[in-house]
Amino acid sequence: xxxxxxxxxxxxxxxxxxxSDTAADGLRPGLALAFAQDTVAAALACPAVRDxxxxxxxxxxxxxxxxxxxxxxxxxPGGGLNAALAHGAAAxxxxxxxxxVAALNADLPALRPLELRRVLDAAAEFPRAFLxxxxxxxxxxxxxxxxxxxxxxxxxxxxxxxxxxxxxxxSLDAVDSVRQDVDTGNDLRAALALGVGPRTAAMATRLLIAxx
Length: 212
Description:
alpha/beta
């Protein structure tokens, strides 16, 4: 099964505020862009991925991610994360009604294509399925097979909310790179330990993080 991934990205100037203890204000937008670039590049290299649609209104991010091969979908609802994901999934299915779609976080800089393939192959067995994040509280991927709606419920405690919505939680080992999103300095350290993509690695050299 070949998937279309829908990746939401808020304006870079407002992204990654929880990294304020790790990255200065002037560096956070570039860091958020680097996360998204490494995420999109790895996703497009995954054998199970047909294409990637990024939902964003950030002009710089749109240009940079389109250059990698992503389709850019304007965040027309302007209604937050779940509205952006629903809009992106609808745009995908307007063109290809039977396309399987999966929402993927934009902050997975350690993402490995073959680990993502394992997750998507497992998700293909269920109408809707999701993968919990490394903290076991949130969600990094939510998938819907053909003829099923995505019904995203990201945000606080999204693991519990997606489970309550009827989505199947995927219990997989050795897919750490798909679980390791980055919201805090500790998250970034964990991602760096896994091995991040080249753009995040370059940005990380500019950060003053003890122990890196």
